[in-house]
Please model this.
Amino acid sequence: MFERAIQRKIAASRRSFLLLGPRQVGKSTLLASLEPELTLNLADPATFRSYVTRPERLTEELRAAGRNIRTVFLDEVQRVPALLDVVQVLLDEKRDRFRFLLSGSSARKLRRGQANLLPGRIHLHHLHPLLASEIGESFHLDSALAHGTLPGIVTEADASTRAADLRAYVDVYLREEVQAEALVRDLGGYARLLDLAAASSGRVLNLNALCRDAGVSYETARRYLQVLEDSLIAFRISAWSGSDRASLVAHPRIYLFDLGVRNALLHRPLDRPLVDERGLLFEHFVAYELYRRIGTLWPDLEVFYWRTRHGAEVDFIARIGREVWAIEAKVSRAVDRAEMGTLRSIGDHVRGVKRRIVVCTAPRKRVVDGIEILPFEDFLQDLPS
Model:
């Protein structure tokens, strides 16, 4: 089992919490490691039937439970959202009696079920595919760019099995289960838009072009993309807006949550990154290392990108409180001065820039014109983990 970066934080607290994350990122493994005295797996059909018809059964069982039952793990709680009302009742009766560990893989199902997300009573955390630091010494950049960092994929030694597992994830989960959750009637349109979303990953979102190419209406395309985000399969990085917002691109970028899933959707090789895509894939890697820290690991972090309508661009703007980092991702061992022009002038457009950074694959770090040229290993050491 990998030691997850948030593990120490949630283990040190006695607060109940909801852990959200896509399928197969290790939520159940992580929460089981906290050694709950009672576990209810709502993905199990018999357990699901027992509680979906009578959620109050959990109230009855826990009120009758012995003092040895203190930590209760409800896995895949979005399947029975009414259990969150039960959790509220029990926490309100005696907050210190039980600690609830709740996991879910779909914010959409919770919202659609009008779930009570227990504001003020529980903490909310997110779990993602593995960070490079969580993989440790066995981390290899080209492997991460090719088959991503889902735990089960990283630990699978056989390349053909890894590829089969990723394709099964795409076909069974994304194309069938998420499709069913979206209540999709136009199966062809959903399949086309899913492929187009994968091809657009890491790029500025042009919803009009997506719906035109997928052959669906604007509202249908918007709804399908919202389903992917609510199912934690995709996320957005917003465009920076500042005093010169009239000259800036306003549309967000959309990213699929894992490169292995992205590559499987697009039928790319899963044993090596394609040379002509390596720059784009490396930008994804840097985006993931930032985005996956938002919240629990780095509470003050916000991530944007900056781009003018004339094409000048900085890959990422990280705002940490009042401090701002401007970050470029270059899959290069030798970064040329000519490639740093926008970084040199970014302070004229964005206030509070403290650090200007090029994350790259160079062997050693250096500083050029006040710009830090950092091997990605050095950059990652600067981030909370």
About this structure: The chain has two domains: 7-126, 132-381. The domain at 132-381 is CATH 1.10.10.10 (Arc Repressor Mutant, subunit A).
